[in-house]
Structure to design on (354 residues):
């Protein structure tokens, strides 16, 4: 395990992918499909790109969990990191989503897989805040330093400071909110398009932080951790250079290796010295995903990292007591009662006070 770089990830194979019209109003990175291109062609291209990302990560020694999604009403389901994050110690967070047609991307089968395959003890669900118009879109809205416990957050419609404070209190992070805008004054919709924090390196577009003092504070907070800071230009951000993620893989010989996963477009935007700086600690793994990037997100947005300890592969046999508990109970009239599903921690959709 690595505190910053997970060795397992979740990907969603969205079978009906298209750029989401409900998110286009505040996502300046989003674009329409080419004129005349059918939904079927777009979806097929996106599926091929997703499969290529999954294979590249597997080839780098990362464990990849792939879930299919045939639902045509969830165009952005390929980006699961917005509704789910996992944390060392067995903790999972579920988040409130800004676009109403993204809220049913949350999936119980993914949570059940995490409970079955990893040591998970608590699910903290903030999605009950959606009716109050308060949102925090996971590790899109926050870029987390899991080592120094800092949550870097560009404030926007999708990153409310009230929920940020709540998350940081629950998960023991230091909130580091700031305002970030592009050259036209448009707020950055997700922090993870302008920043990526690895174990030894941090990619960030500091010049997009409007306030000079806050920019200096963010720089100092990163520098004190000992990371090498690679400053990105706004042009590189537009090419998704900030939308990268560090993962922990394995060489063919079984040795641990840190990789920096990003799109081919993002890698091509980096300068030689920037690539050299990244490769001092990570192997860059890049895949071209031009269709998926039309939706305004890139490789980092596609990946929900699993920061949980895996369960042993050879699970022990259940005790007689456990087997007795698992038996279907019989009611007073002799009818067998169907077992009820159980969710660890707070139930999905349970209202949460701020």
């Amino acid at each position: 395990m690595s505190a910053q770089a997970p060795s397992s990830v979740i990907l969603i194979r969205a079978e009906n992918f298209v750029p989401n019209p409900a998110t286009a109003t505040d996502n300046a990175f989003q674009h329409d499909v080419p004129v005349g291109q059918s939904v079927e062609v777009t979806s097929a291209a996106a599926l091929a790109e997703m499969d290529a990302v999954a294979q590249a990560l597997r080839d780098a020694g990362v464990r990849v969990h792939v879930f299919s999604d045939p639902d045509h009403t969830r165009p952005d389901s390929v980006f699961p990191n917005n509704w789910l994050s996992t944390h060392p110690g067995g903790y999972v967070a579920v988040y409130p989503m800004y676009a109403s047609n993204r809220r049913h991307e949350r999936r119980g089968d993914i949570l059940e897989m995490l409970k079955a395959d990893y040591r998970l003890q608590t699910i903290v669900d903030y999605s009950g805040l959606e009716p109050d118009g308060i949102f925090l879109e996971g590790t899109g809205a926050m870029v987390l330093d899991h080592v120094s416990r800092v949550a870097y957050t560009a404030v926007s419609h999708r990153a409310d400071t009230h929920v940020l404070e709540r998350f940081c209190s629950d998960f023991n992070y230091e909130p580091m909110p700031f305002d970030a805008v592009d050259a036209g004054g448009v707020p950055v919709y997700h922090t993870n398009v302008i920043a990526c924090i690895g174990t030894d390196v941090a990619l960030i577009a500091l010049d997009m932080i409007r306030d000079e003092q806050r920019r200096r504070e963010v720089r100092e907070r990163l520098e004190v951790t000992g990371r090498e800071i690679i400053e990105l230009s706004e042009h590189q951000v537009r090419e998704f250079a900030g939308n990268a993620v560090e993962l922990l893989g394995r060489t063919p010989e079984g040795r641990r290796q840190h990789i920096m996963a990003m799109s081919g477009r993002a890698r091509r935007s980096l300068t030689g010295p920037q690539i050299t700086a990244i490769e001092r600690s990570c192997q860059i793994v890049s895949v071209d995903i031009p269709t998926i990037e039309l939706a305004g997100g890139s490789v980092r947005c596609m990946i929900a990292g699993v920061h949980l300890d895996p369960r042993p592969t050879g699970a022990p046999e259940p005790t007689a007591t456990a087997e007795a508990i698992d038996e279907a109970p019989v009611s007073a009239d002799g009818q067998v009662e169907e077992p009820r599903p159980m969710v660890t921690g707070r139930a999905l959709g349970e209202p949460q006070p701020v």
User: Anything to note?
Assistant: The radius of gyration is 21 Å. The first strand starts at residue 8 and ends at 14. The CA atoms of residues 149 and 300 lie 20 Å apart. Confidence is low (pLDDT under 50) at residues 341-354.
